[in-house]
Each structure stands twice: as C-alpha cells, then as structure tokens.
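Hi all, posting the design record for the shared folder.

TITLE: backbone redesign
STEP: 1 of 1
STRUCTURE INPUT:
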C-alpha cells in the first residue's frame, strides 16, 4: 500500500516562510510528476506547482516568484519552499504523485493534507 506522508505545515505571519515535504512509502511505480495542490475554506482544490522527473516546473500565477518546488527522485520526495506568504495562501496543502505504468494509464497518489495558516 502506497502512502504519502506530509510535514511542514503550521501557522506563520504574513511575509513569513514555510517549507513543506512529502515522501512516499511502500511499493510504487517510478513517479513522473510530483506536485502540490491546495484547498481553501469554501473553495475548490487548485494547482500550486508541479515538477517532472526531468526537473521541469510549472506554477500557478498566484504563487510564481514566491514558491519553489523541488524533488529528490532517489527518496521519492517533493518539497515546496514558500516565501513571502500571504493570508490568501491559507489552505490545506496536498501533495500529489503521478506514475505512468503504461502509456495509457496514470496512477495518482495523494497525501492526507497539511494545514498552512497565514495570519497576524
């Protein structure tokens, strides 16, 4: 059974920083894409950032320039460095891993979520 374990969430003041980590345990196919999503209260889940096995990154416009995603392929771990945090960044953050066992199939794995609260 695959399990994604998240850490790093918490309460931080505006303009502060946090670093999230997410590591996979259990048997799993090699991960092609790792990413982070978030869901604020009363809002739909949205993409924050993704990174491919080769290191290509993609960011939501609202976080570009403030957040940095990175990965350690040997450890099946993804990180999200969040700087210059704003109250609107408050949400539950979920890590997401995507594997491609075949060209036609994509397996997705999700973390349980970690709360990030930005407030003074």
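Okay, here is what came back for every position:
SEQUENCE:
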């Amino acid at each position: 059974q695959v399990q994604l374990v998240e850490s790093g969430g918490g309460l931080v003041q505006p303009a502060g920083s946090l670093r999230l980590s997410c590591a996979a345990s259990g048997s799993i196919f090699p991960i092609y894409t790792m990413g982070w999503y978030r869901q604020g209260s009363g809002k739909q889940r949205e993409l924050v950032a993704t990174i491919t096995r080769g290191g290509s990154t993609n960011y939501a416009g609202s976080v570009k320039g403030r957040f940095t995603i990175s990965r350690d392929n040997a450890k099946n771990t993804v990180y999200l460095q969040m700087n210059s945090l704003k109250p609107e960044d408050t949400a539950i953050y979920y890590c997401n891993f995507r594997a491609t066992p075949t060209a036609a199939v994509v397996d997705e794995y999700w973390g349980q979520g970690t709360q990030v609260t930005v407030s003074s």
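COMMENT: DSSP finds no helices and eleven strands in the chain.
Let me know if anyone wants the other runs.
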